[in-house]
Amino acid sequence: MSENPIVDRSDEPSAFAWIMSGTLGALAVGGLAKLMLDRRRARAIAEAGREEDGPDGHPS
Description:
The chain is an all-alpha fold. The longest helix has 41 residues. The chain is rod-shaped. 0% of the residues are buried.
């Protein structure tokens, strides 16, 4: 069998590193997005709770 010059196995670790860095980057962005959405949800719930109260702090 002749060696195919197009397939260079020395690039495999480099390709794997690129894939892993992309995966870790996607996980970091996903975690940051979840954190921001959770904070937004908590803020919306707190604001809705304040709106339910009347001007003197009691439900109308």
